[in-house]
Amino acid sequence: MFVCTDTEPDTDPAPEPDIVAWVAGHDGAGRRVTGHQLAATSAATTVRVRNGELLVSDGPFTETKEVIVGFDILECADLDEAIEVARAHPMARAGRLELRPFATFA
């Protein structure tokens, strides 16, 4: 689950869920395997290879207002459970959460 900022956060005045409680609850239930907040995009380094040439630049490659600020690896029975886990994350209101399964290679 990628934790991202969003240019249009929720405007509901209700209190946001507590991130410490969210982490503790899902760690305790075995649904959250690991996760961490990422450093600011100003600390990012982008690496590309084009026509055999190494290109290294500071910061994110694209100019964007929405950035990945963290991640959580979840262990859920199915997508429905993952959606419920993400729904309760504070960034579901302040930003957005992108759920992706790990790819399987044959």
From TrEMBL:
Gene3D superfamilies: Dimeric alpha+beta barrel. Residues 11-102 form the YCII-related domain. Signal peptide: none annotated. It comes from the Bacteria. Belongs to the YciI family. This is YCII-related domain-containing protein.
